[in-house]
Amino acid sequence: MRVKPGRYRRGVVPDREQFVALPGGRLWTARSGAGVPLLLCHGGPGGYDELGTLAALIDDLAEVHRVDQRGGGRSSGDGPWTIDALVSDIEALRLHWGHNRWLVAGHSWGAHLGLFYALAHPDRTLGLVMLNGPGIRWGWGPERRARRLPRLTASERAEVEALERELSGPGAARARERLRDLWWLTDFADRTNATRSPRPRDYLADPAVADSLERDWEHALDGIDARLARLTTPTLVLHGAADPIGEAGPRELAGLLPRAEFVLLPGVGHVPWLERSDELRRELRAFVTAHTASATRSTG
Questions:
Q1: Torsion angle, CA of 238/45/151/270, rounded to 10 degrees?
Q2: What is the C-alpha separation between 211 and 220, in angstroms, rounded?
Q3: Angle, alpha carbons 184-189-192 (nearest 5°)
Q4: Alpha helices in the chain (DSSP H)
Q5: What are the DSSP calls for 145-204, one per residue?
Q6: CA distance to 29, 40, 68, 134, 250, per residue, from 105 (Å)
Q7: Beta strand 36-41 with 16-22: parallel, antiparallel or unpaired?
């Protein structure tokens, strides 16, 4: 294990990076803080962890674990790239770190990955936080695109259309990366927040990983309502009011879960911790604090 130079705030343990070998590959992980164990699931699918700033909002209350999911970032690209495989990876990490139960939180796609974990392992999930995820009705892409386009300039919109035509050609990789930069600008309530926080470019997403997981994701959502109705895990559904992913889907999802609360975060888009983080911080800390006693009572 190597210690990553990072935050040495009083009373907070700095980030510790570790590669964990699992049957499906070798996963990059990071851990910070102390307290009730909590896993953060990054967006994508096929992405990598960018949640260090989010972790810093709560890692004086929680032992926060982050991971590059199978096939993304610094982790092994071995398949299969399915939801079941990623859920199995999460469970294997829980066992590796020796946690009896933990909180699971996710952003965007990671919100649904956390949900799938809670459905598979409700007895191991103290609570679930779904941050800026989509709804459970597949097909939100066109609506999100329609909400994004007006946030671009006329020249940027023309560039988007040209880049989308290139996605099936030899310049597909370059087109995907440039599209990612342009869409990043639209994920914020205030565009200046996007330009102050440029999109990281450390790792290119593997289209095969993303495509495989998206196909499985669509299948997994088919007929999920009945499973949601049986999930009694306490759940907090947080959503930015200016997120191009509209609030209707996440609000419906919260209504289907027996113990869920929906909270709309004003003045922020898809990445609230990079805009106005005060209300996000307050909601997260209240949820973590409420479940710390439950974790303390749990035994191995």
A1: 20
A2: 14
A3: 70
A4: 52-55, 83-97, 109-120, 141-148, 154-166, 172-186, 191-196, 207-221, 225-229, 248-256, 278-297
A5: HHHHGGGS-HHHHHHHHHHHHHTTSTTHHHHHHHHHHHHHHHTSSSHHHHHHSPPP-SS-
A6: 15, 5, 14, 14, 15
A7: unpaired
With a CB cutoff of 8 Å and minimum separation 6, the contacts of 209 are 45, 46, 71, 72, 77, 81
Tokens 């991971």 — which residue?
A: 67
72 touches 47 (CB < 8 A):
yes
Residue 26, helix vs strand vs coil: strand
* pLDDT tens track, the chain, 300 positions: 333 333 333 334 457 999 999 987 899 999 999 999 999 999 999 999 999 999 999 999 999 999 999 999 999 878 899 999 999 999 999 999 999 999 999 999 999 999 999 999 999 999 999 999 999 999 999 999 999 999 999 999 999 999 999 999 999 999 999 999 999 999 999 999 999 888 877 888 899 999 999 999 999 999 999 999 999 999 999 999 999 999 999 999 999 999 999 999 999 999 999 999 999 999 999 999 999 877 655 544
- Do residues 93 and 64 make contact, with C-beta atoms less than 8 angstroms apart? no
How far is it, in rounded angstroms, from Cα 34 to Cα 268? 28
First to last CA, the chain: 25
C-alpha 200: how far from chain center:
15
Q: Is 61 helix (H, G, I), strand (E, B) or coil?
A: coil
- Residue located via tokens 């030899």: 170
Q: Which two tokens stand for residue 267?
A: 């003045």
Rounded-to-integer distance, Cα 166 and Cα 228, Å: 39
Q: Is the CB of residue 37 less than 8 Å from the CB of residue 295?
A: yes
